[in-house]
Amino acid sequence: MSALKSQAESSSLEEEQKRIQNKISLSNCGVCGSEKAKYRCPACLTHSCSLLCVKKHKDDSGCSGVRNKTAFVALSHFDEMALLSDYRFLEDTGRFSDGASRDSLVRVPRTTLKLKLLASQARKMNITLRFLPLTFTKRRENSTVFNPREKMFLWHLKLMFPQSSSEFSQRRVPDRHTLKQILTTYIHPTESDPVTRQKLKMYVNASSENVKVFMKAEGRKANSVRYHELDTEKSLKDNLSFKMLIEYPVLHVVLRDQWKDYPLKGPAEPASACTSLATKNVGIDGQKRAVDHVSPPSVQTGTNLQTAAEEISPESEPPLQKRAKRGVEEEEPEEGEILDSSDEEEMLERNQAESIPLENNTSVNDMKNMQHDVN
């Protein structure tokens, strides 16, 4: 009896294996095409018959053989195995995140004293300089320094030539050099390096009027990319003024055919001196009207003077007059632009300063009523 049972069990196992093999063998080998398929690639679901065919499939197609855990699965095909796969993927993600939080390189502070000094000197030149964590490649590549004696930046510069599929990095570029001088070593017909000139033949043969330099506007959403158009006749310092940089400048040298692929950002310079002067005059006229409204010319008493002084005091000034006293118009952020944390704090402080209770205005009205009773 035991022998019969063991034979029955072995036969059932063989039938099960044959059934599974028949499911896979519905098609022939996708590599050689001569044998029945025994294996299926987890990544691209290609059938194969042997180890040699598996290796050949990976070499020919470049397939990694690793299943895509984030691939879309239709609800009709979602089963327990797909649910288990998603659960294990979430576990791996949590484990990786926990391991990264314990990494000593990740926990290094983003800014050091040297970086703070660089950002401070850049701020004096109207340049907003931001830095990435130490683990980023762009952070490790950055070789920008500041020369305190000559008071100039020596920038790490990256030049992108998209129509030649080339990019070059240049270290310690003085900010006094013009963009034309910087590009001379790359696309000048005679003064550039011969090897570089051969790579950038399209740019060398083009005239200077058909070449423009763009720089990506930082601090914007991914679906609203904009660029600054730079002047090749101006220095690097003047071109970077009133712009934001992340680590170092990345310049895109583009020919006329692709200018349309680089949408421009609006002007980034602040309001002119004439605008600020006109704004100040508006604030002064508003103050004069407030004084005339409180104390008429016919009556000049001590009570009226005190009331006028209270009316134009900074605590009771209307928000519009406070903005006028700043001397510079506040520009609304452009669509698609992301506010920096420091900008958000500044706007919050301004809003809090402008939302002042009207207790002083009430006291002025009381003084008006007292004056009316005296008269």
From TrEMBL:
Function: Required for box C/D snoRNAs accumulation involved in snoRNA processing, snoRNA transport to the nucleolus and ribosome biogenesis.
Protein name as it appears in the record: Box C/D snoRNA protein 1
Domain named HIT-type: residues: 29-63
UniProtKB keywords: Isopeptide bond, Metal-binding, Phosphoprotein, Ribosome biogenesis, Ubl conjugation, Zinc, Zinc-finger
Family: Belongs to the BCD1 family.
GO cellular component assignments: nucleus; pre-snoRNP complex
Region of interest: Disordered: 289-375
SUPFAM superfamilies given in the database record: HIT/MYND zinc finger-like (SSF144232)
Source species taxonomy: Eukaryota, Metazoa, Chordata, Craniata, Vertebrata
Gene from which the chain derives: ZNHIT6
Biased composition (Polar residues): 297-307, 358-368
Pfam families: BCD1, zf-HIT
Quaternary state and interactors: Interacts with FBL, SNU13, NOP58, NUFIP1, RUVBL1, RUVBL2 and TAF9. Interacts (via HIT-type zinc finger) with the RUVBL1/RUVBL2 complex in the presence of ADP.
Record organism: Oryzias latipes
Gene Ontology BP terms: box C/D snoRNP assembly; maturation of LSU-rRNA from tricistronic rRNA transcript (SSU-rRNA, 5.8S rRNA, LSU-rRNA)
